[in-house]
Specification:
Order of helices and strands: EEHEEHEHHEEEEEEEEH
Strand content: 25-35%
Number of strands: 13
Radius of gyration: 20 Å
Mean pLDDT: 91
CATH class of the largest domain: Mainly Beta
CATH architecture of the largest domain: Beta Barrel
Helix content: 25-40%
CATH superfamily of the largest domain: Cyclophilin-like
Shape: elongated
Length: about 230
């Protein structure tokens, strides 16, 4: 697959490497591969790298170099990463996360079942089947964007976000799924609730395991988590 990229000026001290603008596992792998390489090389002029879905934002020290010099330093490395056959993002961990798919804990579960013209059990099967990839972090600290959701489950965000989404809520929005790390406003479709919320990093993989309401309540009690 050919992969295009370009430089974009982001600020007086920031440069963006922009790949093809789409949510794609190979592109995201290149973003994190490039970030890892830059961090490992410890350039004195490089202050920070911020990876996203399909771009990498770099902050540099303007007292040491200018934008043209940064571009010249980066271009050979970017070309090398793009041409590499290795799409693996970074050394990563796999997480299996238990989720309770109970309508009392997932306000949109029944609506999602209606959307696919199927049962709640079918929704659960479709959501637990994939191995998800952590594309990036954002929105709130610890909020990891996971993909890719089965095409049959994809639904847009709510036009009007809820004021309070309970922590641990598992939700979907288009081709992404996520776990709310803390109680906060949110507009995603709520599909389940997790007790454990492990620290996820870009490049990690995640699978969801369905548990009963009884198992969920027992886990909450064992870990001292409030039943909310």
């Amino acid at each position: 697959m050919s992969m295009n990229w370009k430089f974009q000026t982001a600020a007086a001290d920031a440069l963006m490497v922009q790949f093809d603008a789409r949510i794609d596992l190979s592109i995201n792998g290149k973003v994190h591969q490039l970030a890892k390489r830059l961090q490992a090389e410890h350039h004195s002029w490089l202050r920070e790298v911020v990876p996203s879905y399909c771009s990498l934002l770099l902050y540099y020290n303007v007292l040491e170099c200018n934008e043209a010099q940064v571009k010249r330093a980066l271009k050979p490395l970017i070309d090398e990463v793009v041409q590499s056959a290795d799409d693996k993002a970074i050394d990563c961990q796999h997480h299996e996360i238990a989720v309770c798919y109970d309508p009392e804990l997932a306000a949109d579960l029944t609506a999602i079942a209606d959307h696919i013209q199927g049962s709640v059990e079918t929704v659960i099967d479709l959501h637990t089947a994939p191995t998800y990839h952590v594309y990036t972090l954002g929105f709130a600290p610890g909020f990891a964007y996971l993909g890719d959701v089965d095409e049959r489950l994809r639904m847009p965000r709510h036009a009007t976000p809820r004021q309070k989404v309970p922590r641990g809520s598992v939700a979907i929005a288009e081709q992404q799924t996520a776990i709310y790390p803390r109680t906060s406003p949110g507009g995603w479709q709520l599909i389940g609730r997790a007790v454990q919320r492990p620290e996820l990093n870009p490049g990690d993989t995640v699978t969801f395991k369905a548990i009963s309401r009884e198992q969920y309540d027992r886990l909450c009690d064992a870990q001292g988590v409030k039943h909310d």
